[in-house]
Amino acid sequence: MIGVDTGRRAPGKTRLQALWWDVACLTAELIVRSLYLFRIEGAGRVPRHGPVLFVSNHESYLDPVVNAIAAKDRQMGFLAKRELFLGAFGGLIRSLGAIPLKERSDLAAIRAALAELQQGRCVIIYPEGGRSENGEVGPFLRGVALLIRRAGVPVVPMAVDGPNRAWPPRQRLPSIFRRLQVAVGDPIPGETLNADPDGGLERIRRAVIDLQAGLRRRHG
């Protein structure tokens, strides 16, 4: 329900902040479902309590919207390039929990993300370091492993498919009436990943690839 249960969904946030997130998320979902063939799989896998680090592939500027709708029960912060924090749009994304990212190894942004998780909240990251040119999942930046290790929280893989065709990196505005899909995977305990620091990051990447492949296999 809109604006309710703030302590569980986004600890430390005010009722007004929770209400604003819900209104923005609901509005975005109505627009997306009106303009696209939109599908969510696995929304029930989103943990209802505690800090969560969501990890998704990155195809388009539409990704944060699609990811947020899939996990709308839990408000999430997200890292965004510093250039986006300008004017009214910058104020909008900041009010929705965006964290400015100066560069790929921005320690201040990592600390801000860790602070969100330590409060019991949720953060989503895109470990490829940029949008995919062809919609395929690229290598994950090694620095992401540091954030995962220090956070020590459950990691939930997510995969999007279709935003790359709706809004490719070199296209100025998005196309409409395309297929947008998002899948949520099973949470991976932080201690499991920390027990295998070398293979943990690749395990997450493989989970994202498998989720995307499943979407394509079932729905095209």
Summarize the structure.
With 220 residues, this protein is of the alpha/beta class. A 7-stranded mixed beta sheet has the order 1-7-6-2-5-3-4, sandwiched between helices.
Question: What keywords describe this structure?
Answer:
alpha/beta; single chain; Glycerol-3-phosphate (1)-acyltransferase; 220 residues; seven-stranded mixed β-sheet; 9 helices
How are the elements arranged and paired?
Layout: H1 6-9, H2 15-35, E1 37-41, E2 52-56, H3 63-70, E3 76-81, H4 87-95, E4 98-101, H5 107-118, E5 122-125, H6 144-151, E6 155-161, H7 163-166, E7 179-184, H8 190-194, H9 200-219
Parallel strand pairs: 1-7, 2-5, 2-6, 3-4, 3-5
Antiparallel strand pairs: 6-7
Q: What is the mean pLDDT?
A: 92
At CATH level 2, the architecture is: 3-Layer(aba) Sandwich
**CATH homology group:** Glycerol-3-phosphate (1)-acyltransferase
The fraction of residues assigned to DSSP E strands is 15-25%
The count of β-strands is: 7
Tally of domains: 1
Low-pLDDT runs:
none
State the separation between the terminal residues, measured CA to CA: 33 Å
**Could you say which structural class the secondary elements and strand pairing correspond to?**
alpha/beta
Helix content: 40-55%
Please give the CATH class: Alpha Beta
Number of helices: 9
Strand ordering within the main sheet: 1-7-6-2-5-3-4
CATH topology: Glycerol-3-phosphate (1)-acyltransferase
Q: Characterize the biggest β-sheet.
A: 7 strands, mixed
Shape: globular
Oligomer: single chain
Radius of gyration: 16 Å
Q: What series of H and E elements makes up the topology? A: HHEEHEHEHEHEHEHH
